[in-house]
Every structure is written in structure tokens, then in C-alpha cells.
Amino acid sequence: MHSESSSSEPSNLPLKQIPGSYGLPFFGAIRDRWDFFYNEGKDKFFDDRSRKYQSTVFRTNMAPGPFIASDPRVVCLLDAVSFPILFDLSKVKKHNVLLGTFRPSWSFTGGYRICSYLDPSEPKHTSLKSFFLSIIATRHNKFIPLFQDCLDEFFSKLQAQIQIQKQVDFNSLNDKMVYNFIFRLFCDKDPRETNLGSDGAKLFDKWLFLQLAPLGTLGILPKFLNFLDDLLLHVFPFPFLLVKSDYNKLYDSFYNSAVSILDEAASFGIKRDEACHNLLFLVGFNTYAGLKVLFPSLIKWVGLAGEKLHQQLVDEIRTVVNAEGGVTFSSLEKMPLTKSVVYETLRIEPSVPYQYARAKEDMVIRSHDAAFEIKKGELIFGYQPFATKDPRVFENPEEFVPNRFVGEGKKLLKYVYWSNGRETENPTPVNKQCPAKDLVLLLSRVLLVEFFLRFDTFRVEAKPAAILGSSVTLKSLTPKATTT
């Protein structure tokens, strides 16, 4: 693996000191936290500092700071050239940096350091990642028909609710559909047949919220009560005790249902208990949480793009499906616009906006305009929505361009970083790229295909969700016109 920052930029860039300041100990971190969450907001926080320092690389404190994070200092990267250093495992390590400057108690994961917190240099990482890649690969024949089955129920509910209520909350129904699909994929049964009933998504939501709360705000309090929001979410971590019984229910359900997967773990040298906790994290944190954010974003951007795009997608999707005789891996590959729309959504609103790594050694990184020295042990932070909207790489970067990655545009895919790696690279046991990368892309395409096989157009309203992603309301849904 190589870093674009060290290979394709001119080597004669001026070597500069990294600008920026951490401010006074403790108080500087508190100030930056308040700017990040309340005074400025995330995007303005980074944009203001980049303008102030005239640099896309600078020093700052990252939330949450005291008392959850003992050391909030980071080197921040905001451009497409410097960002890939975060993937260069010859120069950085990923030991316990999943959430950056803090980590929840290991109690949230059964007392284990889950694969996502391991660096690939650790032997356990290779066995766990290989295990993940294996269980995903062995289920590939189930992906499309099982997801179609879940979508059929999902779309029926959407249509029924919008007819009655005139609008429908996309996210809440999406969460249940995603959980239902994931459980059936990995456990070979409907979750409603287990002790969880239909509550699994809610239990995962609670477990996720208690871990991710330091990265967001409630978004429901008036400004003069921001101090209460800050005190509740950003000063002390939530204890695992609040979700212990819920997590145990999830664990017991997967332990008793995912029998074939847990049997397979032994061949990778993984204990059954450890395999189950890792499976829960893969299912709940990596997959459920990721699709919980991605699918509403996809529907938001396609909905806001309007009827012209909807008609183009209808034409492409229905033409190919009719010609190919159904929705298959092969037919999905023959839909360039549908594929591009998914990539563009992942570019403009990546599901995981933050990436972290720690420098293994003293090194020099490069932006478009300068080179900077980072010292061994420093924490490097990349804000992905700025890197994938770099105006020096993408034309009209703030605009959703549905066909951006069609034809010659495919050359830009190497700058799409949503999966903790380049879109042009693939997950392996020895890197940190999302093991379900290809599955996520497939499901996103199938979602669009099945949607536009049923509906001609739709309208949405959207607003930021509390922690990550968008909250989407469907305002209208026009079924496929029938011909007589």
C-alpha cells in the first residue's frame, strides 16, 4: 500500500510547520469542543480554522475532550492528498483509534478488544478479519434474494403509511428493515422467531447511542440549555450498566441463532465467546449502524435531485432488468448511473465522517501546497466530508452530481474514501478497510433498483440526525404508472 501524499505530489513542496494551536491545557479543549458542537458546528469549525491558517493541515483539539478523552490533540487533515496517509499502514497504526481520542469501556463488547480496535500488526486482527471475510463470502448467494424479500415488506409499509399519514419517517422503518435483513443473513432465521421479537433494532440503537454519544448532540434543547447537553453527553461516558441487560439479550440471541458461523470460528483459532462478541460488533456497529446512516442519505440525495434524475434511473433500471430477466449481480453491473449515484452519495455524505491513525514514526506528509512533519506518536485525524469534497479534485464539490462517476469519471473513484480505504482498493485480512465494503455497495444499488421498479418519483424533506447522517421524511411517493 502506498500513500498518495508521498508518491504523486511534487517532492519539492516547501516544508512548513503545522499551523494551529491547542490553546491552554484543559481550557483550550473545552473551547474547541464548544465551537465544534455549539458555537460553529462541525463543518464551520473546520472551515474557519482552515481559512485562518491558510492550510488544509493544522493542529486542533477534537471532541469530546475532558473528561472523556485524556488527550484531545490531533493533526487535522482536510484535503484529498494528505488524507490517504490514514490508510498507509507502513507509516501509521490503528491501535484503539476507532473513535479517535476516546474509546468506550470494553464492557460494551463483552470485555474483548474487538477487531475494529486492533491494528493489523496484531495477530488476532488477521484471524478475526479473515473470519469476517469468510462468513460474508459464504453468504453471497443470499444477498440479493434475501434483501429483495426484506425490501418488499419495507416498501409495502412505506406505501401504506404514506397513504394514511400523507408522510412517513423513512429512518424508523429503514432501521427495522436493515436489522431484519442482517439477522436473517447471519442467523438464517427471522428475528421475530427469537426472544428479541421485533425489538432488536431498538436494543442496538441504545447500545450504539451510549458509545457514540460523545460525538454528537441531542439537538432538541434551546441554545441557552447547551450546557446541559454538553454536561450530559461530553463530560463523562455513559456506563455499560445502562445497557447491560439489552446487550445480553442481543448476545444470547446471536449465540443461539448464529450457530453455523460460530462453529466456523474455531477453524480460525477464535473462541466461540469472542467470536460472538465480534460478530455482534460487526453486525451492530459496522453493518447496522452504517446502513442506518447510508440508506437515508441515499434516499435524501436522490429525492432532492428531483424528477429528472428519477426518470433517468427508471429508464436505466427497468430497461436493464427487463433485458436481463431480473436483478442479478450481472444486471447491476450494467447500470452505470445507478452505480454512480451510490458512489456520489458516499462521496458527498460519507457514513463515517471521521478517520484516525497514530504515527508509527517521524514522517513528512503532503497537502496540495506544502509538506509537513508529523512526529512519532502524534494522533492524525481526517475529516472525510472535506477530503471527498476537495475542490482541487472534484468540480462543483458541494453539488450532488449523479453521473459524476460515469465513463471517464470512474478515474475519480480513488478519491472516494468511505470504506476506510480507497474505493479502488479491496479489504484484506491485513488492512483496515471495511470487510463488508462490496456488500454495502451491492445493497445500496439493490435498494435503488427495487425502489424504482415500484415507484416513478418521490419527494423528501431532510434534516441532520442527532449523531450522524440525516433524518428523512418521505412527503410523497408515486407508484409505477400502470399501462392498460
| CATH level-1 class | Mainly Alpha
What is the CATH superfamily classification? Answer: Cytochrome P450
CATH-assigned fold name: Cytochrome p450
Shape: globular
Tell me the number of strands: 11
User: Which strand-content bin applies to the residues?
Assistant: 5-15%
- pLDDT below 50 for ≥5 consecutive residues: which ranges? 1-9
Q: Classify the secondary structure makeup into a structural class.
A: alpha+beta
The tally of domains stands at: 1
Give a brief outline of the structure:
The chain is of the alpha+beta class and 484 residues long. It has helices spanning 4-7, 27-39, 42-53, 123-137, 143-165, 170-187, 200-212, 226-234, 244-257, 259-265, 272-305, 307-324, 329-332, 336-348, 384-387, 437-454; strands at residues 15-16, 57-61, 73-77, 92-93, 168-169, 354-359, 363-366, 371-374, 379-383, 455-464, 470-479. The chain has a single domain (96-350, 388-479), classed as Cytochrome P450 (Cytochrome p450), CATH 1.10.630.
